[in-house]
Amino acid sequence: MARPISNPDKKSSRELLLEAATKLIRSKGYTSTTVDDLCEAAGVSKGTFFHNFTSKEDLGVAAANRWAQVTSEFFRLAPYHLNKDPLDRILGYVRFRKEILNGELPEFTCLVGTMIQEVYQSHPEINKACFNSIFGHAEVLESDLSEAKKLYSPKASWTSSSLALHTQAVIQGSFILAKASGDIRTAAESIDHLENYLRLLFKS
Amino acid sequence: MARPISNPDKKSSRELLLEAATKLIRSKGYTSTTVDDLCEAAGVSKGTFFHNFTSKEDLGVAAANRWAQVTSEFFRLAPYHLNKDPLDRILGYVRFRKEILNGELPEFTCLVGTMIQEVYQSHPEINKACFNSIFGHAEVLESDLSEAKKLYSPKASWTSSSLALHTQAVIQGSFILAKASGDIRTAAESIDHLENYLRLLFKS
């Protein structure tokens, strides 16, 4: 008897809902995105939503965790890691952040940086997942910054940890300015200043 | 005949509603803040709300415009303007931004930077008022940065305008990190990096 053939490219309802959440929350925020919006965008029923998530908050946590995974993989595979010099890797990372400022604002801005503004007091579980995403990403940069500091700036008083977080502050803030102005260049110019700061710090 | 004596310290319903909006939106965002929440926090009736504002969006625009006015006045009166050297005024501004990181997160974070994340696509009028607040504030800094550039870095390739906006990107982003971590120091350390960058740029 023939068994039904499952299509390995077919996305699960859970994945469709998480993709819809990423798109909608980046466009209009967490609170504005309703369960109905999510079901419509994902093409699933409300029953399917609640089969996959206990609540919208549960989906918010899952969306932030998925964001952390997807972006980790995306940056892990980026070509700047091929540089042998840690400073070249750091500068390559910053230039890469500038290169990927492409398309519409909801396509390149940060899901978790957006959600934090709404949830940091009211939804601690979502906030924790957003924190893990941003601070986990900064930790990856920290190891290259530590290596670069040892080589080029061993006596500097700043810590690699604070500098890694500063790079994320600039990027998050540059998204806010780009959203306000509707102009990607505002974000790009701020990332240029970040690159300039790193060059001055390491005198490269 | 005695006339009723009006109390000059008594705030108008409009002002009470705008203060409530500033507090609530900084805590949980624009969409989560309902007209009922605003009326309760301001101690006014719904009728009074709609006597003062045609809609919640109308209040959002007014709250962003009031924010621009209040913060302009606050920074205009700050002591760093007394410095004769434009670079000292700039560095004084940045240190002042660090000094005022005090109290609870909703008390020192930015109303308009928070709102932008939710409204930039859905509420163009609020977004425009938020843009005017942030970019107007940056313009004030730009004149000191231009003067400092002429004195200390006349040949630099960056523009005073982009540097003024970069200071705002760092501050906005530092708020996101502080909200994520629940730790003001995350914001303070990013502002330290901003000060360090300015010192390196102007070699002070």
Give short descriptive properties of this protein.
homodimer, 204 residues, mainly alpha, Tetracycline Repressor, domain 2, elongated
Largest sheet of chain A: none
Please name the CATH topology of the domain at 64-202 in chain A.
Answer: Tetracycline Repressor, domain 2
CA distance, first residue to last residue of chain A? 68 Å
Total beta strand runs of chain A: 0
The shape of chain A, in one word, is: elongated
SSE sequence of chain A, one letter per element:
HHHHHHHHHH
CATH class of the domain at 64-202 in chain A: Mainly Alpha
CATH architecture of the domain at 64-202 in chain A: Orthogonal Bundle
For this entry, what is the oligomeric state of its chains?
Answer: homodimer
Strand portion of chain A, in percent? Answer: under 5%
**Which class do the helix and strand fractions of chain A yield?**
mainly alpha
Summarize the structure.
Chain A has 204 residues and is mainly alpha-helical. In chain A, 73% of the residues lie in helices and 0% in strands.
Helix-strand blueprint:
2 copies of one chain form a homodimer.
Chain A: H1 13-28, H2 35-42, H3 46-52, H4 56-76, H5 86-99, H6 105-108, H7 111-119, H8 124-152, H9 160-181, H10 184-202
What does this structure look like?
- The structure is a homodimer of 204-residue chains.
- Chain A has helices at 13-28, 35-42, 46-52, 56-76, 86-99, 105-108, 111-119, 124-152, 160-181, 184-202.
- In chain A, helix 1 crosses helix 4 (56-76), helix 4 packs parallel to helix 8 and helix 7 (111-119) packs across helix 8 (124-152).
- Chain A has a domain at 64-202: Tetracycline Repressor, domain 2 (Orthogonal Bundle).
- The first copy, chain A, is an all-alpha fold.
- The first copy, chain A, is built from 10 helices and no strands.
- At the A-B interface, helix 7, helix 8, helix 9 and helix 10 of A face helix 7, helix 8, helix 9 and helix 10 of B.
